[in-house]
UniProtKB/TrEMBL annotation:
SMART domains: EXOIII. This is DNA polymerase III subunit epsilon. SUPFAM superfamilies: Ribonuclease H-like. PANTHER family: BLR4117 PROTEIN (PTHR30231:SF7), DNA POLYMERASE III SUBUNIT EPSILON (PTHR30231). Keywords: Exonuclease, Hydrolase, Nuclease.
Length: 206
């Protein structure tokens, strides 16, 4: 799987090296990451549709909330009562939302080639890629940082015998990070960013 992913990325880089998005495929040289969260209609990466997307930049020990991306999408056909219970976005709330292609173009411009941070980020990336490839001809090439793996590694450095609770709410509680607008894309992106800063810059709680 990793070999196929690397081969596909190399092919994408060759095909787009002279195009509008060539810079996405260049190694990142800066000191920022982008915390990303997507609200979806489900957990199956082959079927889930995008409801909203949010991202916020992190630089050092600062979460740059003034530099954020936050869009709602047009109502997907698969929006149902079960998904509404999670993200609380009804069809009427998505009236006037962005079309997927426009939202993705804006997202690419915001993220550029920065590393992408998230909680179970592989799911969000898989859904984004499902929409990106037919429209733009490539998957997101960015390096990803999985918050739950970072949390587990940091906690076990302090206590190797610990099997930490990797639920989002419990990680935030353990780190003393407030839950901001839980189950909204922007709230979860900012909370993810705050936990990342806490793990990298603060003392790890025992």
């Amino acid at each position: 799987m990793m070999v196929l992913k690397a081969l596909r990325m190399a092919r994408d880089r060759r095909q787009h090296r002279e195009g509008q998005y060539a810079a996405l495929f260049e190694p990142y040289q800066g000191d920022e990451v982008v915390a990303l969260d997507c609200e979806l209609t489900g957990l199956d990466p082959q079927k889930a549709e995008l409801v909203s997307i949010a991202a916020v930049k992190v630089k050092g020990d600062q979460v740059l909330t003034s530099q954020r991306f936050d869009v709602k999408l047009q109502k997907p056909d698969s929006l149902d009562a079960d998904s509404i219970k999670i993200h609380h976005l009804r069809g009427v709330d998505l009236h006037g939302g962005e079309v997927v292609g426009d939202a993705l173009a804006q997202l690419l411009n915001f993220i550029q080639n920065r590393p992408i941070l998230g909680y179970y980020i592989d799911l969000d990336i898989a859904v984004l890629n499902r929409h990106l490839r037919p429209r733009f001809g490539f998957d997101l090439p960015n390096t990803t940082i999985e918050l739950s793996r970072l949390y587990q590694r940091k906690m076990q450095q302090v206590n190797p015998e610990l099997q930490p609770d990797l639920h989002f709410d419990q990680m935030a509680k353990k780190l003393g990070v407030p839950l901001l607008e839980r189950h909204t894309a922007l709230g979860d992106a900012i909370t993810t960013a705050l936990m990342y800063v806490r793990l990298n810059k603060g003392a790890i709680p025992v």
